[in-house]
Write a structure and sequence with these properties.
187 residues; alpha/beta; Rossmann fold; five-stranded parallel sheet; 12% strand; binds adenosine monophosphate
């Protein structure tokens, strides 16, 4: 089963992705983690993206699209892909459709964790203390939220027409969100 977790930063995509990965023995594809890893390694990609990441801007589509390609085509991960934070633009969504199609796969479920700005600010402040993420400062968070809201609308419109699209109230507690997701995993 291939699943997309969609929603603004701090909506709980990572937490729910980890739950699904464990339950279905799948693989989490977090483009945020992959990009942070490139920065950590100080790779060519890392050097190119560090400023955008720290400014809360989206990384160039071409870079992100390239980054996920190997994973989608990995036979071990076929039909076991849990996307967390990808796609975030219409170009990325269309790229994913193409990659899945050419590897004989499809998106089985799309969860949109919808959550407001106040809840996100509270959550990210907590996460900053717990996880010490370098891109978790309040200015970056607000920029990331605004960027997300402004640029992902077309992606939301694109997926909301899909019969496998499910909107979930992301301001609920972790277990409550998991229970709502579970309903669709158990069918
Ligand atoms: P995340 O860990 O998903 O919250 O992502 C952290 C940051 O990584 C974002 O604010 C973006 O700068 C960058 N990023 C992650 N995924 C993507 C993506 N699919 N497209 C563009 N930028 C991304």
């Amino acid at each position: 089963m291939n699943i997309i977790l969609f929603g603004p930063p701090g909506a709980g995509k990572g937490t729910q992705a980890k739950y699904i990965v464990k339950k279905l023995k799948c693989f989490q594809i977090s483009t945020g983690d992959m990009l942070r890893d490139e920065i950590q390694k100080n790779s060519e990609i890392g050097k190119k993206i560090i400023n955008d990441m720290n400014d809360g801007k989206f990384v160039n589509d071409e870079i992100v699209n390239k980054l996920i390609e190997n994973t989608v085509f990995d036979p071990e991960k076929k039909d076991k892909l849990i996307f967390d934070g990808y796609p975030r633009s219409l170009t990325q969504a269309k790229n994913l459709e193409l990659l899945l199609k050419s590897s004989n796969q499809k998106v089985n479920l799309i969860f949109f964790l919808n959550v407001n700005k106040d809840t996100i600010i509270k959550r990210i402040k907590k996460r900053k203390v717990l996880e010490k993420r370098s891109d978790d400062n309040i200015d970056t968070i607000l920029k990331r939220y605004d960027t997300y809201m402004a640029t992902t609308r077309p992606v939301l419109d694109f997926y909301s027409k899909n019969p496998n699209f499910h909107e979930i109230d992301g301001s609920l507690g972790i277990d409550e969100i998991t229970a709502k997701i579970d309903v669709f995993l158990n069918v």
